Give the backbone structure.
Amino acid sequence: MKKLLILLALIIPTISFAQLDLKKTLKFATFYGAVNGGNSISDLDVYSISNGLETNIIETPFDYSFVFGVRKIARMGYEPKEAFKNGTENSYSDAATIGKVKGFEFLFEVDYKRQQGINYLDQNHFIRYVADNYIVKTEYLMDGFADIEYFEMSERYRYKLNKKFSFNIGAAQRLAEPYGYDPLEDWLLSNNNLHYTFLAIEQGYGVVFDGQGGETYFDPSGNQVATSTEVWEEVVIPTVLADYTEQERNKLKGKFEYSLVIGFDYYHYSKDFWLHSWGNLMPYHYDAGGEFSYHEYNEGQWLDYSGGLILGYKLNKNLGVFTEGKYNKYWNRSWHDFSIGINYVIF
């Protein structure tokens, strides 16, 4: 609920700024929902000789996703037409600062999925308004598989060098997580070791001793998780520490960070050659103070940047090559994806 309220707080100013007509705004928008599924990784045989030769099979349940969304984004010339949307499409151009047309465009998509036996809730929302001389954009991204989550809003002045190339400059506001906070410091002993078993008990885990030197460990639901100290320390405790650290960090409030942003956008398309490129640089960030601010953690200023490239070239009527991808680096944390390939059509 808190994240939803923050998202609405970011969206409402953008909508008000653009002074939108709802009927006109939703015209040509696509609402979609889909269920997708397929096999996950294959079964794995695990052998043990602790009690004679034993064989266990680790089975990973099938992958699936439930996708719901609505989008209104003008199709770039290089993008193929799609009769239906199932939410699995990957359009690199969605990350661009400027779309193909002027006006209001948006994407709201929620994807609940299971991948390699682990459940994720992914979200990708953005709205943007592009005019001849200004840009307003608000976005929220949560990628569970890549462990990425951020809010961002920017207001920029746009200078068009020509019909294809433009520069922009303005301000960006982002919601940053607390940095430099270590919840495990409170559990350190005088010899700098961690009192991990007591921490686990505080988190609901339990241990039962049999009086003969053996012990059995249980999780908060009462399920047996280990019958030896070795398994307890090497398998269970790392999970306990990771869960506790995430739990305590989530209790801290994020804080808005204000940055200068400079960017560019270039778009050219013809049937034989197309190039779409964009970039953003945040060279200066206002230091608002705070115990767990990134300024304090980083001990000063830093560079954040993002960009994308989509390039295609048909050498002749049969042969074509392409490359596309995007790269982000925020708070010294990077994530990226790309695709490079060749197409040969036989007539």
Q: What stands out?
A: Residues 183-250 form one domain. Residues 229-250 form the longest helix (22 residues). Residues 75 and 100 are 7 Å apart (CA to CA).
